[in-house]
Amino acid sequence: MRKRDGSSPVDRRQFVKLASAGGVVLAAACGRHDVTEPAAGRATAGADRAVIRVASVPTAVEGNVLPTLIADFERQTKYRVELTTSPQLYDLARDGKVDLLVSHYGHRDAERFVMDGLGEWPRTIFSNQMALIGPPADPAGVRGLTDAAEALARIARTRSTYLLNDIDGVHYLTEILWHAAGRPDRAGWFVDVRASKDSAIERASELGAYALWGLTPFLRLRKARPLRLEPLVLGDPLLQRMLVSIIVKPGGVRDANTGGAGALQAHLLSPAVQAQIRTIRYPGVDTATWVPAGRHNRTEVLPKA
């Protein structure tokens, strides 16, 4: 995958009809998917029309789903894809450095980007999983449960330690699970040390505590540092978090390759690729990580088989 930025705008309805009929060639033959630094928007050069610049939140790259799907897309088509990961991916798009965005549906910048007329409506592609993580000894006996609320209730009943991972979304999910568990008294088991992400998980490891976090970032951290924790509860729909793709609209410095971005988005939404998403694993871990989410879109925008 390389990088590109320009192409004439394509009417979205027309593109979907063509893609559905097989009239759009979903491009390139490269198969490499290096993570690169994006170049600024520039005038379209004919040789660059085959390059699609994609910016993604880290989890979709670390979790192996985008690299796998993009490599297949490149083998099947004439397009080459340049993949960038950045916490500021929407700023990159505003600066004309991105053709297609992949981020969580609730990303703090997504709504403003679309409402400002800079991107097309988000299309749900897949969901990642959060996990209830805990010590291998599992004193609450939650291993293998697929009901996170029941798991939290068991943690409370056994007075096992639960450490709050103090991220807004995780905090919110914890409150949902606490209510679903019957609102047990938090004294003696619920701990808030005002830590988040890596720091929270490291502290949970020290305390032998349970905690909630994304499965992919946890597995990444566990490869980098010794942790006395394991993912114990997976598979509850409440633990899923939706990711979307957004085609960047051209305008100003945004000389976006809308044709290429639309082709890649249609590929990701195709029934065969949606089925493939279920099989993709984090490298070295035989645990289902990704859930296809294309069916949540309006049927009119979905490609046919």
Structure keywords:
305 residues; alpha/beta; D-Maltodextrin-Binding Protein, domain 2; 2 domains; 8-stranded mixed β-sheet; two-stranded parallel sheet; 11 helices; 10 strands
Summarize the structure in words.
- With 305 residues, the chain is α/β, with parallel strands linked by helices.
- It has 2 domains: 12-127 and 242-301, 3-Layer(aba) Sandwich (D-Maltodextrin-Binding Protein, domain 2); 130-239, D-Maltodextrin-Binding Protein, domain 2.
- The protein is built from 11 helices and 10 strands.
- It has helices at 12-21, 58-62, 65-76, 89-94, 110-115, 148-157, 168-180, 197-207, 215-224, 258-269, 271-277; strands spanning 51-56, 80-85, 100-104, 123-134, 162-163, 190-191, 211-214, 230-233, 240-247, 290-292.
- The strands form 2 sheets. Strands 1, 2, 3, 4, 7, 8, 9 and 10 form an 8-stranded mixed sheet that branches. The chain has a two-stranded parallel sheet with strand order 5-6.
- Strand 5 (162-163), helix 7 (168-180) and strand 6 form a beta-alpha-beta unit.
- Helix 1 packs across helix 10 and helix 6 packs across helix 7 (168-180).
- The model is unreliable at 2-33 and 39-47 (pLDDT under 50).
